[in-house]
C-alpha cells in the first residue's frame, strides 16, 4: 500500500521536534509493509542541519520551497492509496493542504495529521473560514500526536468524521542507553528548542531552579537560546544533533521535560523528547499534566513537578542511585508498553478500518 506523507522534514531535526516522531512511526509502518514517500520542502536551515541520510524504509522527496515546487509535489498524491498532510510543514501550508488532497484519487484515504493539536483547535476557535475547518468534513480521518479524548472530541466538534490519537513512543534501535559523556554531565539538563509558547514554563521549571541552586550544574541544548538571559549555573550548548541525544540524556543526573502551554493545559500530550530521554535510561522530571500515568508512573518511573519548588526539592533528594533506579524502571515500562512497533500495529488497524468504512460509503 502506497502512502504519501507531506511533513516538515524527515532528514533534519533542526527546529523540527517532529522529526523523531516521524522517523519512529514511519519506520515502524515501513516494517508493516507500507511503501512510504515523505515529501518535504527544501528549507535552507533544515538542509544545512540534516542529521540522517535517506532511510531504507522510506523514499524522501525533497521539493523546492517555491509555489511551483509545492504544486509539483502535491500532484504526486495521485499515486498514493493514503495521502497524509501533517501540520507545520513550513512552506505554503494552506495551499499544500488544498493541493495535495485535491490531487488524491477518490478511493484514497485523505488524512490530516496534527503534531500540535491543542494549539490547532485553539487557533481555529469559532472561525468558520479557517482553511482546515473548511477541509475537515471532506477528509476521511484526523490523526493527532497527543491530546487524547479532549482533542478527539474537539476535532469532531469542528467537523472531522473521525479522529484518533497516535502517541509518540520509543524506537529502541535509535534511543537507548549509552556510556555517559563528560561534556553533558550535569544535575539537570533540558533538550529542546526555544518556543514562545513554552518559554514562560522553561523560566519556571529550569531557569528559576538554576538561579536558586547556583552551586549545581544545569544544561540547556537546542536552537534559539543564544540570547536568552540565564543564571550562571546554566550552560547553553546550542543545537545538538540527534546523534548526541542519547549521550546527553544518559549523562545528566536528571532530564527535564516541559510541555508547551496548550499541550500542558489539555493534558495527554507526551512529547517525543520524553520517550527519547527515558529510552536512554534517564531519570525524568516532568511538568505536571493530566494523563502522565498512562505512560509512566509518577514517583516510580518519572518525577512530576508542579512548580520550581518541586524541581528544587526533587533535585535535593535525588541521589545517583535513585536516579538510576527511576531511569531503569522507565525504560522497562516503555519497552513493554510504548514502542513505535506497538503504535504502528494499532495505526495499521485504524487505517484498515477507515478503508473499509470509505469503501462501504462509496458502495452505498
Secondary structure topology:
Blueprint: E1 2-6, H1 19-31, E2 35-42, H2 44-48, E3 59-64, H3 67-75, E4 82-86, H4 93-103, E5 109-114, H5 117-124, H6 131-135, E6 141-144, H7 148-157, E7 163-165, E8 186-191, H8 196-212, E9 218-221, E10 234-238, H9 245-251, E11 252-257, H10 261-266, H11 272-279, E12 284-287, E13 303-305, H12 308-317, H13 320-337, H14 340-363
Parallel strand pairs: 1-2, 1-4, 2-3, 4-5, 5-6, 6-7, 8-9, 8-11, 9-10, 11-12, 12-13
Helix pairs in contact: 1-14, 3-4, 8-12, 9-11
Keywords for this structure?
7-stranded parallel β-sheet, Rossmann fold, alpha/beta, 13 strands, globular, 6-stranded parallel β-sheet, 364 residues, 2 domains, 14 helices
Count up the domains.
2
Say what the CATH topology of the largest domain is.
Rossmann fold
Uncertain residue segments = none
Measured by DSSP, the beta-strand proportion falls in: 15-25%
CATH class of the largest domain: Alpha Beta
Strand order of the largest sheet: 3-2-1-4-5-6-7
Largest sheet: 7 strands, parallel
CATH architecture of the largest domain: 3-Layer(aba) Sandwich
What is the terminal-to-terminal distance? 24 Å
Q: Tell me the structural class.
A: alpha/beta
Question: Helical segment tally?
Answer: 14
Estimate the helix proportion, in percent: 40-55%
H/E element sequence: EHEHEHEHEHHEHEEHEEHEHHEEHHH
CA-based shape: globular
The count of DSSP E runs of length 2 or more, i.e. the number of strands, is: 13
